[in-house]
Specification:
The chain is α+β, with helices and mostly antiparallel strands. It is built from 27 helices and 23 strands. Helix 6 (94-123) crosses helix 14 and helix 23 (750-784) runs antiparallel to helix 25 (799-828).
Length: 881
């Protein structure tokens, strides 16, 4: 019989155990009744006959046990019996059981929550067939980190010449009004290049994908829609394929419907429509503006494909040497998942490591509780062993109790993890890729089951092994001899959790210091009493002229509101990045000068931000179309291009690169009329970028206005006032959103706040658990050494010396753990360098503060049992012993 067959047979036998027990009772009763009948026939009374029959038979229960021990399902019977006994034992000690379960559940719940996010974002396979074969194409400049984008010509060249890849694709996101303009509904979509469906490996389930002709300039207007859009907007009708959509001013024909499961990382969460992305690659366009990804060909490894691409780039360098700045430039293959997750992936791994430390500290505390309980159950175990229980049976009993506790803690921890997952996702600084797929899947369940199994076995062994080695004679005569060993084990666990706590405290301290310094950075503008007004999508029929009339009227009405000190429009708000664009300085021989941040604003914008004007003048209403084009630059721009010259009156050629203009509308230079202070336009932790600011009115159609900045003494009233003004001017314009300018600064450091808050929570949990561990160990030490302490006091020891004895022992344990943890923290903190701002990973103030805080908390935790020890009555202690 196979092992599975044998196990099935045993399980069936165990299931019919009640019937077997009943048949055995009936058979044994029959034998006793027959013996009783024979004794009565010999002249004995019924009572004497029954007693003699039972004596000769040897006891019914003994025979039952002998029969049971021959059964193949004996281990199941004993396990069930041990499980019932474990339940009764834990019910008799609800405080102990609750402490262990809650301690473990805290660690397991935290790990479950963080791992659910790590799994959903980093570990779960991408939603494509053979996702490991899909990679990004990054451009390597010869130094530094490759960027995850190519020029249009590089993309097309690789697509046509590489044998290692099955097409190269790129995409753009877009928004567009759909249907009746009066309803003002917006669809989210993707414009996808020719090879998109081939590379991702997903095609429409109804209809077809785009043809090559449709994907090229001049092709027919076609669209592929998502399953949700098809059901919501097209009624889920199969005849929708071939129908037309109203998408903005276009009316593409629906040629396909994507599968319901279609997801594309990097696209809007609800991608409704896919359109062809048509562009003509131009060798003169050297802007790396295309995120390119590819599918490796069958049989091609990443290393082999990268070597083949090096050959393609060498050929391209030979044909177009003017496109290369140095001989080391080339293409690198980058992980698709890491490129769309970016820095958040590193943050999640750090948090998973931190929460793992919390789990280990929880396990150490729970193990200490189990060891302490083993001391309390010492007499029970000794009596059971004296009555014949073997070491294996005792070991199994304690092991089952540990597993039972771990299972309950795992269930509670899963509930806690599911609850805290929602709170965790609300703290995440930006939308998580595939955030809708984060949850308790098979990997998370497997992790939880693994934690339950490992912790249950470990805890059972921790409590059982010392107890199973008891000296019966010594234990029945006196206290357990193994107490010293068990005490050393408890102290070792305290040292371990102290070390983990130091690592977490040091990490949290570094992030707190980094965040504090980041918050202290001067952004270059004032957020006090200033609000940002964001406009949504303007109505479809809003041309340039109508939009200009609306904006001028809005600005004029807002300026007239009570308490408004300044107001101005801008193409992009501070810390939300503008347009990165090349510039050249007119009259200089080398016209490839560099790149700048390009922003368009109205008059009054710099006043609303309180950005200081250092030289020249600000924009006025006369800086409009038809007037000479002008610009204001920042101090960083002056330091780069005019360090020893007066920048006023100089001309800057925006959008000119290597003697050519990158796009229509940029031709001609602009005159510098002013210099302003530096503003951190990209991130607080990055130096101010060289910036060129132009009048919004002089660049019609080149850039959309993002909104307004208003400085007012009554910001709380502004939202209602602006909503009323917008309705008065044009009720078709959606009501804008109003937020304090300080919230934009806060949003720019959300990821840093996310890291700091979670690590601080984990470090606080570790600190609390460590304090509990120190308190518990010293409390049990005081109890175990009650006789010794009583003798010391009886011999004249002062309470202060007893306190110093106990506190000193606790601080010794914490000191050893802190030293080990500090060494680990010094090594681990170097991995955080890229995540810190203006803080060294070995900052002595942070590390000393972490150690000092832990010692202070441990001192408080040790003082409580120390005071109890100092109050021991020697007569009571000696009498009890």
């Amino acid at each position: 019989m196979t092992p599975i067959g044998e196990l099935w047979t045993r399980m069936r036998a165990w299931r019919h155990r009640p019937d077997v027990e009943r048949e055995m009772d009936e058979e044994l009763r029959f034998h006793v009744d027959m013996a009783t009948k024979r004794n009565i026939e010999r002249g004995l009374t019924a009572r004497e006959a029954r007693r003699l029959a039972l004596r000769d038979f040897g006891g019914i229960e003994r025979h039952k046990e002998e029969v049971r021990e021959t059964r193949p399902t004996l281990w199941l019977d004993q396990a069930a019996q041990d499980l019932r006994y474990a339940g009764r034992t834990l019910r008799r000690s609800p405080g102990f059981a609750s402490a262990v379960i809650l301690t473990l559940a805290l660690g397991m719940g935290a790990v479950t929550a963080i791992f659910s996010v790590v799994n959903g974002v980093l570990l779960r396979p991408l939603p494509f067939p053979d996702p490991d074969r899909i990679v990004y194409l990054g451009w390597y400049w010869g130094t530094g980190t490759p960027i995850n984008s190519l020029t249009g010509y590089q993309l097309e060249y690789v697509r046509r010449h590489s044998q290692a890849v099955e097409g190269v694709a790129t995409y753009r996101t877009f928004e567009s009004e759909i249907g009746d303009p009066a309803l003002f509904r917006v669809a989210q979509g993707l414009r996808v290049s020719e090879d998109f469906f081939r590379v991702v490996g997903i095609t429409p389930v109804r209809g077809r994908a785009f043809t090559d002709d449709e994907s090229r300039p001049g092709g027919d207007a076609v669209a592929v829609v998502s399953d949700a859009f098809w059901r919501r907007e097209l009624g889920g009708d199969a005849s929708a394929v071939g129908s037309t959509l109203r998408l903005g001013d276009a009316t593409p024909t629906v040629v396909g419907i994507m599968p319901q499961s279609f997801r594309f990382p990097g696209a809007p969460e609800n991608t409704d429509v896919l359109l062809p992305f048509r562009f003509v690659p131009n060798p003169r366009d050297e802007g790396h503006n295309y995120e390119a990804f590819t599918r490796l060909g069958a049989g091609w490894s990443r290393d082999a494909a990268e070597r083949e691409l090096e050959g393609v780039i060498r050929t391209m360098r030979t044909e177009h040497p003017e496109l290369f700045g140095n001989p080391n430039e080339g293409i690198r293959l980058l992980s698709f998942s890491q490129m769309y997750v970016r820095e958040l992936g590193r943050t999640l791994w750090v948090l998973l490591a931190a929460v793992g430390c919390v789990l280990l500290i929880s396990c150490a505390n729970a193990a200490n509780l189990l060891l302490a309980r083993a001391v309390a159950r010492e007499r029970e175990i000794v009596v059971r062993a004296a009555l014949g229980a073997g070491r294996g049976r005792i070991l199994r009993q304690l092991l089952i109790e540990g597993i039972a506790l771990s299972i309950i803690a795992g269930v509670v921890g899963t509930v806690v993890g599911g609850w805290s997952l929602s709170a965790l996702l609300s703290l995440v600084p930006r939308s998580l890729p595939r955030g809708d797929e984060i949850g308790l899947d098979i990997r998370v369940v497997a992790l939880t089951a693994g934690m339950i199994t490992v912790t249950g076995i470990v805890f059972g062994l921790v409590a059982a092994l010392p107890t199973s080695r008891l000296d019966l004679a010594a234990s029945l005569r006196d206290r357990m001899r193994g107490g010293a060993n068990r005490g050393r084990l408890r102290e070792t666990l305290v040292i371990a959790e102290t070390a983990f706590a130091i690592v977490l405290l040091a990490g949290a301290g570094l992030f707190i210091a980094s965040f504090a310094r980041l918050r202290g950075v001067d952004p270059g503008f004032s957020t006090e009493s200033a609000v940002a007004v964001r406009f949504g999508r303007m109505p479809r029929d809003y041309g340039e002229e109508r939009r200009g009339v609306f904006e001028r009227g809005l600005l004029e009405r807002i300026r007239g509101l009570p308490g408004v000190e300044a107001v101005g429009g801008t193409s992009s708000f501070p810390l939300e990045r503008g347009v990165n664009i090349p510039v050249a300085i007119e009259g200089r021989p080398d016209n490839a000068e560099g790149d700048v941040e390009w922003r368009a604003t109205t008059a009054g914008y710099l006043d609303a931000l309180e950005v200081p004007l250092l030289r020249g003048r600000a924009f006025t209403e006369s800086d409009r179309v038809g007037a000479p084009r002008v610009a204001i630059v920042n101090e960083a721009f002056v330091q780069r291009f005019f360090p020893d010259e007066n920048p006023l009156g100089q001309r800057v050629e925006i959008g000119k690169y290597k003697e050519r203009w990158i796009a229509p509308g940029f031709e001609g230079g602009v005159e510098i009329i002013g210099v302003v202070g530096d503003v951190r336009d990209i991130q607080l932790d990055r130096a101010p970028k060289r910036t060129v600011i132009v009048p919004l009115a002089q660049w019609p159609g080149m850039i959309d206005q993002a909104g307004l900045v208003v400085r007012t003494s009554q910001p709380s009233l502004l939202e209602r006032e602006i909503a009323g003004i917008v309705r008065t001017i044009d009720a078709a314009v959606p009501t804008p959103a109003v937020e304090e300018l300080s919230s934009i600064v806060g949003a720019s450091i959300r990821e840093e706040r996310f890291q700091m808050v979670l690590l601080t929570v984990f470090a606080g949990s570790a600190l609390l658990l460590t304090a509990i561990g120190v308190f518990a160990v010293l409390s049990y030490t005081v109890r175990d050494r009650a006789r010794e302490i009583g003798v010391r006091i009886a011999l004249g020891a002062q309470p202060g010396s007893v306190v110093r004895l106990v506190v000193g022992r606790g601080l010794l344990l914490v000191g050893i753990g802190a030293a080990i943890g500090l060494a680990v923290a010094l090594l681990a903190s170097r991995l955080l360098v890229a995540m810190l701002y203006d803080v060294a990973p070995t900052d002595p103030v942070v590390l000393v503060s972490a150690v000092g805080l832990l010692i202070a908390i441990a001192l408080i935790a040790a003082w409580i049992p120390a005071r109890r020890a100092a109050g021991v009555d020697p007569l009571v202690a000696l009498r009890t012993e």
